[in-house]
Amino acid sequence: MNFTIIIGWVLCIAAVVFGIMDGGNFSDFINLPSLLIVIGGTFGALIATTPLSQVLKLGKIFKVAIKPPKYNPNQYIKEITEYATVARSKGLLALEESANNAKDPFMKQALMLIVDANDPDKVRDMLESAVDHTAERHSANSDFFGRGVALGPAFGMLGTLIGLVIMLVNMADDPDGIGAAMAVAIITTFYGSLLANVIFSPLEWALKNAHTDEELCMNIIIEGVMSIAAGSNPRLIKEKLEFMLPESARKDPAKAAK
Fold first, then answer.
1. Is the CB of residue 78 less than 8 Å from the CB of residue 104?
2. Looking at beta carbons, which pairs linking 57-61 to residues 24 or more positions away fall under 8 Å?
3. Contact assessment for residue 68 and residue 96, using Cβ atoms and an 8 Å cutoff
4. Cα 255 from Cα 72, distance rounded (Å)
5. Which tens digits make up the pLDDT trace of 149-183?
6. Alpha carbon 159 to chain centroid distance?
7. Distance between CA 94 and CA 72 in Å, rounded?
8. 83 contacts 98 by C-beta, under 8 angstroms
9. Please, what is the angle between helix 58-66 and helix 201-229, to 10°?
10. What is the pLDDT of residue 248?
């Protein structure tokens, strides 16, 4: 579970509610037409600019942001060191059984490529290409919410303009209601800012952080597997891969777990 996004949402909402209740009434900030303009308009524009295949996966993408897969770089380094030890003592062909038992699909794919005695340069190119394609897919997912960060305030402003037009049209008939009408018009800007900064922005960065964790482990797999193919010493491989981690994670492996 991504507790930071949950804690952040609670703090943001609590701060907003406190600000509203400190001298105001919560009911004054509830306006259904404004909500429909901001939420309906924002999601409508997002859906219109997103492939249908990705729209159908929004539930899964949201789940990744709230409950991202766990990637422990130190665990990957430990496994690669074990594979290197097997390859060093029994040869690359002995890794086939280990590769079939690997839980990570990318690890399994990388090990099978070197077991099959493919050209090391071609293997590296294939694996790095896989990392690039993964980055592109993840970027498309986070960009969905990134666009929402811009569209939320835009539709908030659009709702405000609609409210101002309605207010000006009715000004002659009800001059005493200008204050209340202005408040309703401005509420849409409030909704747009709230949607962008409290909902969309945290989701965007949660997905980016999840990708960063996965990408690090994929790069560890690439460097580790290529070192195995080159016949490097298992201890040297371990030390080489540990240099890819932050210093704090190298000193305390538990800190690398996410």
1. no
2. 58/144, 61/141, 61/144, 61/207
3. no
4. 9
5. 999 999 999 999 988 888 888 777 777 767 777 87
6. 29
7. 25
8. yes
9. 80
10. 74
| CA dihedral of 183, 188, 192, 198, whole degrees rounded to 10 | 50
Q: What's at 199, amino acid-wise?
A: I
**Is the pLDDT confidence value at 256 over 80?**
no
Q: Could you give the CA distance from residue 81 to residue 209 in angstroms, rounded to a whole number?
A: 26
- Given the structure tokens 């891969």, which residue do they identify? 241
CA 137 to chain centre: 11
17-26, 64-73, 127-136: segment of lowest average pLDDT = 17-26
Sequence-separated (6 or more) residues with CB below 8 Å from residue 254: none
Q: Residues 10, 128: contact at Cβ < 8 Å?
A: no
pLDDT for res 92: 85
The DSSP string of 61-109 is HHHHHHSPPP--HHHHHHHHHHHHHHHHHH-GGGHHHHHHT-SSHHHHH
DSSP state of 173: T
Closest CA to 185 of 164, 165, 158: 164
Q: Is the pLDDT of residue 184 over 90?
A: no
